[in-house]
Amino acid sequence: MPDSVNLEAKLSLFSEHWTPKILAAYNGNDVMVAKLKGEYHWHQHPDTDDFFLVLKGRLTIRLRDGDVHLKAGELFVVPRGVEHQPVAEEECHILLIEPRGTPNSGDPATAAVKLPI
Amino acid sequence: MPDSVNLEAKLSLFSEHWTPKILAAYNGNDVMVAKLKGEYHWHQHPDTDDFFLVLKGRLTIRLRDGDVHLKAGELFVVPRGVEHQPVAEEECHILLIEPRGTPNSGDPATAAVKLPI
Protein backbone atom coordinates (compact mmCIF):
# COMPACT_ATOMS: atom_id res chain seq x y z
CA MET A 1 0.00 0.00 0.00
CA PRO A 2 1.32 3.50 -0.70
CA ASP A 3 2.61 5.33 2.35
CA SER A 4 2.69 8.98 3.31
CA VAL A 5 5.59 11.10 2.07
CA ASN A 6 7.54 13.12 4.62
CA LEU A 7 8.92 16.20 2.88
CA GLU A 8 11.73 16.88 5.33
CA ALA A 9 12.92 13.27 5.21
CA LYS A 10 12.98 13.34 1.43
CA LEU A 11 14.84 16.66 1.40
CA SER A 12 17.49 15.20 3.70
CA LEU A 13 18.43 12.65 1.03
CA PHE A 14 20.07 15.05 -1.40
CA SER A 15 21.97 18.30 -1.44
CA GLU A 16 22.25 19.41 -5.06
CA HIS A 17 20.44 22.52 -6.24
CA TRP A 18 17.97 22.97 -9.09
CA THR A 19 17.33 19.23 -9.46
CA PRO A 20 13.71 18.43 -8.59
CA LYS A 21 13.07 15.01 -7.06
CA ILE A 22 9.78 13.24 -7.68
CA LEU A 23 7.74 12.33 -4.60
CA ALA A 24 4.38 11.38 -5.96
CA ALA A 25 2.12 11.48 -8.98
CA TYR A 26 -1.09 13.49 -9.18
CA ASN A 27 -3.19 13.19 -12.34
CA GLY A 28 -0.18 13.03 -14.63
CA ASN A 29 1.72 15.68 -12.72
CA ASP A 30 4.94 15.15 -10.82
CA VAL A 31 4.85 16.37 -7.22
CA MET A 32 8.45 17.23 -6.38
CA VAL A 33 10.78 18.83 -3.90
CA ALA A 34 13.86 20.81 -4.81
CA LYS A 35 16.63 22.79 -3.17
CA LEU A 36 17.37 26.13 -4.77
CA LYS A 37 20.30 28.47 -4.29
CA GLY A 38 21.48 31.30 -6.47
CA GLU A 39 19.95 32.65 -9.64
CA TYR A 40 18.26 30.40 -12.16
CA HIS A 41 17.94 31.66 -15.71
CA TRP A 42 14.94 33.44 -17.12
CA HIS A 43 12.58 30.96 -18.75
CA GLN A 44 8.95 30.17 -19.34
CA HIS A 45 6.74 27.14 -19.82
CA PRO A 46 4.45 27.66 -22.81
CA ASP A 47 2.15 24.76 -21.93
CA THR A 48 1.84 24.78 -18.18
CA ASP A 49 1.46 26.88 -15.08
CA ASP A 50 4.32 26.49 -12.61
CA PHE A 51 3.44 25.82 -8.96
CA PHE A 52 5.85 26.80 -6.17
CA LEU A 53 5.34 26.34 -2.43
CA VAL A 54 8.24 27.41 -0.23
CA LEU A 55 8.91 24.93 2.58
CA LYS A 56 12.02 26.51 4.08
CA GLY A 57 13.91 29.73 3.48
CA ARG A 58 13.00 32.45 1.02
CA LEU A 59 12.51 32.58 -2.72
CA THR A 60 12.11 35.48 -5.08
CA ILE A 61 10.38 34.84 -8.38
CA ARG A 62 11.30 37.65 -10.69
CA LEU A 63 8.73 38.46 -13.34
CA ARG A 64 9.14 41.00 -16.11
CA ASP A 65 6.73 43.32 -14.32
CA GLY A 66 7.92 42.86 -10.75
CA ASP A 67 9.19 40.45 -8.12
CA VAL A 68 7.16 38.02 -6.03
CA HIS A 69 8.70 37.34 -2.62
CA LEU A 70 7.95 34.05 -0.94
CA LYS A 71 8.87 32.68 2.45
CA ALA A 72 8.11 29.34 4.09
CA GLY A 73 4.39 28.63 3.97
CA GLU A 74 3.77 30.79 0.92
CA LEU A 75 2.87 29.72 -2.59
CA PHE A 76 2.74 31.25 -6.02
CA VAL A 77 1.66 29.91 -9.40
CA VAL A 78 3.46 31.36 -12.41
CA PRO A 79 0.94 31.35 -15.26
CA ARG A 80 1.87 29.49 -18.42
CA GLY A 81 3.88 31.50 -20.87
CA VAL A 82 5.02 34.03 -18.28
CA GLU A 83 8.77 34.54 -18.14
CA HIS A 84 10.22 34.12 -14.68
CA GLN A 85 13.52 33.83 -12.89
CA PRO A 86 13.69 32.06 -9.53
CA VAL A 87 16.33 33.53 -7.20
CA ALA A 88 17.32 32.28 -3.76
CA GLU A 89 20.00 34.27 -1.97
CA GLU A 90 20.28 31.51 0.63
CA GLU A 91 19.29 27.90 0.07
CA CYS A 92 15.56 27.41 0.03
CA HIS A 93 13.42 24.29 -0.19
CA ILE A 94 10.30 24.12 -2.31
CA LEU A 95 7.47 21.83 -3.26
CA LEU A 96 6.66 22.10 -6.93
CA ILE A 97 4.17 20.52 -9.27
CA GLU A 98 4.56 20.20 -13.01
CA PRO A 99 3.02 17.96 -15.65
CA ARG A 100 5.19 14.87 -16.09
CA GLY A 101 7.89 15.58 -18.66
CA THR A 102 7.94 19.36 -18.25
CA PRO A 103 11.54 20.61 -18.62
CA ASN A 104 12.32 22.62 -15.47
CA SER A 105 14.45 24.98 -17.52
CA GLY A 106 11.75 25.51 -20.12
CA ASP A 107 14.00 23.74 -22.67
CA PRO A 108 14.48 19.95 -22.88
CA ALA A 109 18.13 20.49 -23.89
CA THR A 110 19.04 22.13 -20.58
CA ALA A 111 16.51 20.53 -18.24
CA ALA A 112 17.45 18.58 -15.12
CA VAL A 113 16.65 14.88 -15.14
CA LYS A 114 13.85 14.43 -12.62
CA LEU A 115 14.12 11.19 -10.71
CA PRO A 116 12.03 9.67 -7.96
CA ILE A 117 13.46 9.88 -4.46
CA MET B 1 0.20 41.55 -10.60
CA PRO B 2 -0.61 38.37 -8.70
CA ASP B 3 0.92 38.18 -5.25
CA SER B 4 2.18 35.30 -3.14
CA VAL B 5 -0.36 33.43 -1.02
CA ASN B 6 0.38 32.98 2.67
CA LEU B 7 -1.25 29.75 3.82
CA GLU B 8 -1.43 30.62 7.52
CA ALA B 9 -2.97 34.02 6.78
CA LYS B 10 -5.61 32.44 4.57
CA LEU B 11 -6.36 29.78 7.17
CA SER B 12 -6.90 32.47 9.81
CA LEU B 13 -9.84 33.84 7.81
CA PHE B 14 -12.26 31.00 8.44
CA SER B 15 -13.07 28.40 11.04
CA GLU B 16 -15.55 25.97 9.50
CA HIS B 17 -14.55 22.40 8.83
CA TRP B 18 -14.68 20.40 5.59
CA THR B 19 -15.15 23.49 3.41
CA PRO B 20 -12.13 23.93 1.11
CA LYS B 21 -11.21 27.52 0.22
CA ILE B 22 -9.65 28.27 -3.14
CA LEU B 23 -6.25 30.00 -3.06
CA ALA B 24 -4.97 29.71 -6.59
CA ALA B 25 -5.44 27.99 -9.92
CA TYR B 26 -2.96 25.54 -11.43
CA ASN B 27 -3.71 24.18 -14.89
CA GLY B 28 -7.45 23.91 -14.27
CA ASN B 29 -6.99 22.63 -10.73
CA ASP B 30 -8.05 24.44 -7.59
CA VAL B 31 -5.30 24.80 -5.00
CA MET B 32 -7.11 25.00 -1.67
CA VAL B 33 -6.77 24.97 2.08
CA ALA B 34 -9.23 23.35 4.46
CA LYS B 35 -9.70 22.72 8.15
CA LEU B 36 -10.76 19.22 9.06
CA LYS B 37 -12.06 17.82 12.32
CA GLY B 38 -13.91 14.61 12.95
CA GLU B 39 -14.79 11.83 10.54
CA TYR B 40 -15.70 12.54 6.95
CA HIS B 41 -17.72 9.93 5.11
CA TRP B 42 -16.27 7.22 2.92
CA HIS B 43 -16.15 8.37 -0.69
CA GLN B 44 -14.13 8.21 -3.87
CA HIS B 45 -13.43 10.34 -6.91
CA PRO B 46 -13.79 8.27 -10.07
CA ASP B 47 -12.06 10.81 -12.31
CA THR B 48 -9.25 12.26 -10.25
CA ASP B 49 -6.48 11.58 -7.79
CA ASP B 50 -6.87 13.42 -4.48
CA PHE B 51 -3.85 15.36 -3.18
CA PHE B 52 -3.46 16.02 0.56
CA LEU B 53 -0.61 17.88 2.28
CA VAL B 54 -0.95 18.33 6.02
CA LEU B 55 0.06 21.81 7.17
CA LYS B 56 -0.82 21.53 10.86
CA GLY B 57 -1.98 18.70 13.10
CA ARG B 58 -2.57 15.12 12.10
CA LEU B 59 -4.79 13.40 9.58
CA THR B 60 -5.62 9.77 9.04
CA ILE B 61 -6.79 8.72 5.61
CA ARG B 62 -8.55 5.41 6.00
CA LEU B 63 -8.41 3.16 2.97
CA ARG B 64 -10.17 -0.16 2.62
CA ASP B 65 -6.83 -1.95 2.98
CA GLY B 66 -5.30 0.12 5.76
CA ASP B 67 -4.80 3.58 7.23
CA VAL B 68 -2.35 6.25 6.10
CA HIS B 69 -1.19 8.50 8.93
CA LEU B 70 -0.09 12.02 8.10
CA LYS B 71 1.34 14.79 10.21
CA ALA B 72 2.44 18.32 9.30
CA GLY B 73 4.86 18.24 6.40
CA GLU B 74 3.56 14.95 5.02
CA LEU B 75 1.59 14.35 1.85
CA PHE B 76 -0.41 11.57 0.31
CA VAL B 77 -2.20 11.20 -3.00
CA VAL B 78 -5.29 8.99 -2.99
CA PRO B 79 -5.47 7.40 -6.44
CA ARG B 80 -8.61 7.95 -8.45
CA GLY B 81 -11.38 5.50 -7.74
CA VAL B 82 -9.96 4.48 -4.37
CA GLU B 83 -12.41 4.73 -1.51
CA HIS B 84 -11.13 6.77 1.40
CA GLN B 85 -12.27 8.34 4.64
CA PRO B 86 -10.37 11.32 6.06
CA VAL B 87 -10.40 11.41 9.86
CA ALA B 88 -8.94 14.10 12.12
CA GLU B 89 -9.26 13.50 15.85
CA GLU B 90 -8.14 17.08 16.49
CA GLU B 91 -8.45 19.93 14.02
CA CYS B 92 -5.94 19.70 11.22
CA HIS B 93 -5.14 22.04 8.35
CA ILE B 94 -4.43 20.79 4.86
CA LEU B 95 -3.48 21.96 1.41
CA LEU B 96 -5.39 20.09 -1.24
CA ILE B 97 -5.51 20.13 -5.01
CA GLU B 98 -8.41 18.96 -7.11
CA PRO B 99 -9.52 19.62 -10.67
CA ARG B 100 -11.91 22.58 -10.71
CA GLY B 101 -15.44 21.38 -10.11
CA THR B 102 -14.55 18.16 -8.29
CA PRO B 103 -17.12 17.53 -5.54
CA ASN B 104 -15.15 17.14 -2.29
CA SER B 105 -17.65 14.57 -1.09
CA GLY B 106 -17.45 12.57 -4.30
CA ASP B 107 -21.08 13.51 -5.01
CA PRO B 108 -22.24 16.90 -6.33
CA ALA B 109 -25.40 16.65 -4.22
CA THR B 110 -23.48 16.67 -0.95
CA ALA B 111 -20.36 18.62 -1.91
CA ALA B 112 -19.23 21.80 -0.18
CA VAL B 113 -19.33 24.97 -2.24
CA LYS B 114 -15.71 25.91 -2.85
CA LEU B 115 -15.14 29.64 -2.83
CA PRO B 116 -12.03 31.74 -3.22
CA ILE B 117 -10.60 33.23 -0.04
- SSE run of chain A: EHEEEEEEEE
Largest interface: A-B, 36 and 36 residues
Strand content of chain A: over 45%
By DSSP, the count of extended strands of chain A is 9
**Number of contiguous helices of chain A:** 1
Query: What's the mean pLDDT score of chain A?
Result: 94
Descriptive labels:
homodimer; 117 residues; mainly beta; 52% strand; globular
Q: Care to describe what's here?
A:
The structure is a homodimer of 117-residue chains. The first copy, chain A, has 117 residues and is mainly β. Helices cover 4% and strands 52% of the residues of chain A. In chain A, strands 2, 3, 4, 5, 6, 7, 8 and 9 form an eight-stranded mixed sheet that branches. The longest helix of chain A is centred in the N-terminal third of the chain and has 5 residues, at 7-11. Chain A starts with a strand and ends with a strand. The interface between A and B is large, with 36 and 36 residues. β7 (74-78) of chain A pairs antiparallel with β1 of chain B, so a sheet runs across the interface.
Write the layout of secondary structure elements.
Two copies of one chain form a homodimer.
Chain A: E1 5-6, H1 7-11, E2 21-26, E3 29-39, E4 50-56, E5 58-63, E6 66-71, E7 74-78, E8 84-99, E9 115-116
Parallel strand pairs in A: 2-9
Antiparallel strand pairs in A: 2-3, 3-8, 4-7, 4-8, 5-6, 5-8
